[in-house]
Amino acid sequence: MKREDLFDLDTPPGHEDRVLRRAGDELKTARDRVRRRGFAALVAAFGGLVTAGLALLYFRRADDETEALTVAEEVNALDVDGDLLADLPLEDTGDFESLMEDLDLLESEDV
Amino acid sequence: MKDVQDDELIRRIARGDSKAFESLLGRHKKSVYGLATHLMGSKAQGEEIAQETWIRVIRHAEAYAGRGSAKSWILTIARNLALNELRKRQWEEELEPNSAEKIPDGAVSFEDLLSSEEDARRVQTAMLELPDRQRVALVLFLSEDKSHSEIAVELDLQVNAVKALLMRARENLKKHLTDGGRR
Question: Which of A45, A82, B131, B137 could form a disulfide with B165 if both were Cys (CB 3.0 to 4.6 A apart)?
Answer without folding.
Answer: B137
